[in-house]
Specification:
The protein contains no helices and ten strands. With about 140 residues, it is mainly β.
């Protein structure tokens, strides 16, 4: 379902990542794929590698998640063109959604936001900019 059907290769500049989608018990996904748990939620590997290209340096900052506790956090924006065909809307959709977990550059990131930039040449080409927050 989420396997890329449209992709513009980045050549040697892209990095391959693994995307994990949140699931609940009894879901129809193949549970043979790798699973991880984050904040008492279960995530499963979608079974296909996604190509990313970091578009800027990592941004380091501190945030206060609990009153009185400051933690260092890393943010990164990564671009992808990997999309799958959605029969419901009759268009291509990014393989990644907000709140998915991505294993990229040997680290785990949570997707906080996705921005789509579209170019017509003459066919529609979509570039997806994923805002990532390092979690582990």
């Amino acid at each position: 379902m989420y396997e890329p059907q449209r992709r513009i290769p980045f050549g040697f500049r892209g990095d391959w990542g693994i995307v994990y989608k949140r699931y609940t018990e009894g879901c129809s996904l193949n549970i043979k794929n790798e699973t991880i748990t984050f904040e008492r939620n279960n995530y499963i590997d979608i079974g296909a590698s996604i190509q990313f290209k970091p578009v800027e340096d990592n941004a380091y900052s501190s945030e206060q998640s609990i009153s009185g506790l400051l933690t260092n956090t890393t943010y990164m924006t990564a671009e992808t063109t990997d999309a799958y065909w959605d029969d419901n809307i009759k268009d291509f959709v990014c393989c990644i959604s907000p709140n998915d977990i991505v294993k990229l550059l040997n680290q785990l990131w949570i997707v906080t936001d996705i921005r789509e930039v579209t170019k017509y040449v003459p066919k529609k080409l979509s570039f997806y900019y994923c805002s990532l927050k390092k979690i582990m």
